[in-house]
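S.,

Sequence below, as promised.
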Amino acid sequence: MAVMGVQVVVSLLAASVMQKMAPHCSFARWLLCNGSLHRYKHPSDEELCALAGKQRPKAKRDRRMNGMTDDKPLSVPRDIDLRLDTSPITAMDALVLRYFLEYQWFVDFAVYSTAVYLFTEGYYCLVDPQKETNIGVLWCLLTVVFSVKVFFMVMRHYFRSEEGGERSVCLTFAFFFLLLAMVALVVREDYLEFGLEPGLAGVGSNLESILKQRGWEWMLPLAKLAFKLGLVALCSFLGACLTFPGLRLAQTHLDALRMAADKPLTQVLLHVSFLAPVLVVVMWIKPISREFLLHAPMGKQTVQIMSDSAYNTARLWTIVGLCLLRLAVTRHHLQAYLGLAERWVEQMRKEAGRIAVLEIQRKITRIYCYVSVVSLQYLGPIILTLHCTLLLKTLGHHSWGLYPEPPSLPLAATAASPHPGGDDREDVRAAVEQITGILGGIFTPLFFRGLFAFLTWWVAACQVVTSLFGLYFHQYLAAS
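The prediction came back faster than expected:
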């Protein structure tokens, strides 16, 4: 087995730098604490009593000395003229945020993972080491796994909610996405061009030759069925995890548009970033994407605008560009979420009756304390989509257009013959080469193209469904 050499050194260096520099230099902390985001501070008891025309509340000790044993909570009229003060979010303020450490570690890991991937891409472009393992793929796979773990952590928080409404919403969308995934998998390749069926056919043919040697050919149909059932279950789980990020995205999108009412360029960027998942979904619908560009109608003739490989390259760059665009408008969405405190106060002033002072303070503080959760909900789908795209490019043997695209012919599964003589080290090396050769022959680039194309499309499709439902909910249902 080839020694990875330079890639291992760079990988260990990146891990060491990430650990040592996190307290001093963190992209995730800079994203929240660079001074561009302003939080709303909750008013004190004295300020609320002054606005309500009351005296300053007495301490509990003074009330007991005066014979006042009433424990009724302090309340003020809802229609008081309350104006919230703002202050920039600092690094000290971020320490009280819920899941802030998880947010910081995950986003920083995604940044270093992308940096390692870029290095390995340049390394393979310049050196072309055929026998070395691409360690950037390992970093991207870990980022995908950690993305799913973060989604599960946030969804588990909703499941533990006392109200229970969030739990019902997650289960409903999980069942809906289960049905949608089954429909997507039975659609022909003429309409949704994932390439999953040709990839599975290649895996099946390679696996059949191995199973026949051991008399296990009866396991092949079960393996295909288990893979599709597992893929459907994964799609349902991802859909449930992406439900509340999509609903939150719709809410912050509407609020960000209101905040940028006098900035037409910002509004255009917000609209394009919101429609980015729609563009990703459309790029895998063959009749209106690939077929249109490869056989564009020009009068009575058809003109080929680009080749198949050029379209694959353009699709990769488009997804990367859309991810960067959504990252660029992160501040607008997070500030729109923080603005919920001011909107809630405005809504409170329109209501009659009284409200407890503690409830006002708790509501405003809660909105700020969950800004790191909202950041995970916003950045998580972007990171997952980006790294699925990077894996699609590398494992699927696509090209960035900067150098020729390698051929993606499925390899035959061949088992290396064991060496009759040699020490234990040689036996271990031969065993590792045999296992690597078998796995490399089964899981071909054609299979990885289909798998990661489907996962990239599915993440975008989940965002489209949940964000459009969120628009309908926040514009019509929540307002009624």
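The CA atoms of residues 282 and 454 lie 13 Å apart.

Coffee later?
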